[in-house]
Design goal:
Blueprint lengths: L1 H9 L6 H8 L12 H4 L11 E2 L6 H17 L7 E6 L6 H14 L7 E5 L1 H11 L4 H9 L8 E2 L2 H7 L4 E2 L1 H10 L2 H12 L3 E8 L4 E6 H6 L5 H12 L9 E7 L2 E9 L28 E10 L11 H30 L3 E7 L13 H16 L25
Parallel strand pairs: 2-3, 2-10, 3-6, 10-11
Antiparallel strand pairs: 1-7, 4-5, 6-7, 6-9, 8-9
Helix pairs in contact: 1-13, 2-8, 5-6, 5-7, 5-14, 9-12
Keywords: Hydrolase, Lipid degradation, Lipid metabolism
Organism: Paeniroseomonas aquatica
Protein name: Patatin-like phospholipase family protein
Amino acid sequence: MLKLHRRLASGLRGSALILLMGLAGCASILRLEAPPTEATVDLPILGIPNARFWPDGAPEALRREAATMLQRQRARTPGALPPANFLALSGGGDNGAYGAGLLTGWTAVGSRPEFDVVTGISAGALIAPFAFLGPGYDPHLREVFTELAPRDVLLLRRIPFALLFNLALADTSPLYRLIEQQVDAAMLAAIAREYARGRLLLIGTTNLDLQRPVVWNIGAIAASGHPSALVLFRRILLASASIPGAFPPVLIDVEHASRPHQEMHVDGGAATQVFFYPPALDARSLMGAAAVPRPRTVWVVRNGRMDVEGANVDRGLVSIASRSLATLLHFSGVGDISRIFLTAQRDGMEFRLSFIGSNFRMERREPFDRPYMRALFDYGARKMTDGEAWATEPPAVATLGGTADRPAAR
């Protein structure tokens, strides 16, 4: 999403910027009141007690869910459980074409596993349901990440009017229509079946009222049978991809003390760029006293680069602010990957990381540029078929051209 931030920010240049921002602060956008802060964490969404988790809080709820997952797996698998595989998909906007291509290439080489857990943030959230349901959904991945035009994702508003009268610089109603087309009742039913088999699909958003990350348990929502489950799932996906300021936030309807309320949710990347499980949840405690430890691998897909691009930054407000934001988001993602790596090492898991290498050099003409996304999709698929997709540890960050596509395994 960094390129989109830069493009949107570039429209703000001019002497009227400060005036417009001040006027925008006077605008009033109506919404229902947020639920009381002290009650929000325990609210059962749609009456589903395990519809979501708070990864920055106590890990007991996540531990219970993981234990239930293992119980269901053991119930359907006599003897020792097979190796476990976990997939974590990062955000990245139109760079999500990389992860989509990688998965289809993985199918082509015949080694793609069934993932016990799939997590997704932002663009990764849009990939995650297809990745979770398996290779049969690869045509949908290809369609979403190679056939889109910018108008299929967002409508850019005129800057002065957007600042004065709107929640964001872009209208994401086209993106919601796309989600409605791809995420239907059949998909929800398929996710519910996999949840009953002991598999988890987790999507991250950020609760802006509380300034806290939220992990949504899509399988539990799907299995609830609630008539509003499909709409909630779609809105979670939209919220996870809604960059604050660039895209409008998504309001999630909740009820407290028999009164309706609304929570404001935005891009999960406002809190974390990619996630697996919090370090406070020690996965070793879930394995029990198995004579032979179950092999486990966490596969992390960063829909972005690990290197940084040097530039001569103008001494202007917008240039400095946008460059600083890009730097903040980049190293937030690098830190998230390092945390997953260290947690996997502690808990005896294999770690694999894939990212856009310095050898991909095609330039975007605009956000969600179709030729760019097609080239990136093919690049991701080719890295997999060429056997060059996975690193065994996070690489050192370097300037553009200095980061190897694959750091040497130790």
